[in-house]
Design goal:
alpha+beta; 24% strand; six-stranded antiparallel sheet; 149 residues; 6 helices; single chain
Length: 149
């Protein structure tokens, strides 16, 4: 299934976006390494990965300097049907795939303009591409997001 992915790194000069190649990743650790590389290249302290798969689901992964990645997935069933979603949600408790409710850390963007309630609502009620646009706008990297999209 085709997907869109973008990494946004926040450094002193603002947000810089790039399109990562996730085709050969084998787990969340590989994804974290891609995010760490973006942080090093841009001298960033915060890196956000946005992924959307065919307007079915989206995921947000956040990596702050020295921290473990934090993950929010818009659909708890996505890991069942998507190897990429499965990798991105490795640290989440998504074994109960009977729910299409969002799972993960809904607070990961609270200091970047999207409250936990708003993020959960985006996961429940908004098309994934539209949700990512709202997230990008709130965080201040909408222009970079649109450029990559």
């Amino acid at each position: 299934m085709p997907y869109f992915s973008a990494v946004f790194a926040r450094g002193d000069a603002g947000w810089i976006g790039t399109e990562p190649d996730l085709s050969e990743v084998t787990g969340l650790e590989d994804i974290s390494d891609i995010m760490r590389e973006a942080a090093v290249e841009t001298a960033a302290d915060t890196v956000v990965l946005l992924v959307e798969q065919e307007d079915e689901w989206f995921v947000v992964v956040r990596l702050d300097d020295g921290e473990d990645p934090r993950v929010f997935l818009s659909d708890g069933r996505a890991p069942v049907g998507s190897e990429l979603a499965d990798m991105l949600s490795e640290q989440l408790d998504t074994e109960d795939a009977s729910t299409d409710d969002p799972v993960g850390d809904a607070e990961l963007l609270s200091d970047l303009g999207t409250t936990p309630n708003a993020l959960t609502a985006l996961g429940e009620r908004t098309l994934p591409g539209d949700a990512l646009s709202v997230i990008a706008e709130g965080a201040g990297f909408a222009e970079e997001y649109e450029r990559l999209r």
